[in-house]
Structure of PAS domain S-box-containing protein/diguanylate cyclase (GGDEF)-like protein:
Amino acid sequence: SYAVSSQMAYKIYDQKMQRSFDRRLYLEKELPKAIERQELTVFYQPKVLLETGELSGLEALVRWDHFRLGMVPPDELISIAEETKYIHRIGEWMLREVCKDIQNWDKQRLHIPQVSINLSPVQFFDDNLIHTVKTIINQYHISPSRLEFEITESISMFDIEQIDQKLYDLKRIGVQIAIDDFGTGHSSLVYLQRLPVDVVKIDRSFVMDIPENQGHIALTKAIVAMAHELGLKVVAEGIETIEQQQFLQSLQCEMGQGYLYSKPVPGKEVPLGCFEVV
Ligand code: C2E
Ligand code: MG
Ligand code: MG
Ligand code: MG
């Protein structure tokens, strides 16, 4: 009867909840051991100049290969890391790894123009951020102009004065700033116009369903036009098809990123040379 089956449904639901809760607690406990166990690595995904196919830079993305559970999705990892404040350790570790990789590429005369690193809001508003970044890039003698920080549009929930101050402090170091996942949050034109930002990254959810979704086509056009009007460069995330590439080329969108060119790969496997863009 109804009573019985709904009770069963609850039981199954409870078990699922319990399992995901257990997983979370377990991962919270495991995360602080991940670095010393060498379970974290940095993967890189190329950004491509849509006009010529040249490599414009790489985006660094963290990977956690847990000895029992295997790959932990980055979104899950970052959410746990933020909650436990372990994100600060991971962020410092990422920046160091990226600087080491840049040093190695330079030594091997591989030309990697630029690397971007994601900063979540907890990292962005950390009082030690500026000092940490300065210290690490000095230590590895990396020119700050070769680094870019990606900040998601969701920081616009916070006080604009505070964001402004932090961005200026970062810009003063000499690094580039990109707004990530643009179009998904609530940030307004005012933010883009007012903040010292260099690059806008159009979120994959818009690029994904081009050319079927007329609304997303319109939004993508508007974002590119507005960014250009403000003197910003644009990266389109998640390009998977030639049609998507051609549409973005027709808008003079400067850069593209996505599986059409390359998935994120380990530092040793970064594709060099030119990509096919016509
Ligand atoms: P994101 O910064 O927007 O990164 C882009 C995500 O889209 C990456 O997922 C990438 O693998 C995926 N992607 C790129 N091109 C394509 C495509 O053509 N098709 C599809 N289906 N997916 C594509 P990933 O590596 O799972 O990272 C997810 C998010 O986790 C990132 O989104 C970023 O916000 C965060 N994240 C990753 N690494 C770090 C990190 O070191 N620090 C911080 N704070 N956040 C990170
Ligand atoms: Mg990003
Ligand atoms: Mg993104
Ligand atoms: Mg995205």
Q: What stands out?
A: DSSP finds ten helices and ten strands in the chain. Strands lie at 40-49, 55-66, 70-72, 115-119, 147-152, 176-182, 199-202, 233-236, 255-256, 265-266. The longest helix spans residues 2-34. Residues 45, 61-62, 74-75, 78, 94, 118-120, 123, 150, 180-181, 204, 237-238, 240, 257-259, 264 surround C2E (ligand 1) (CB under 6 Å).
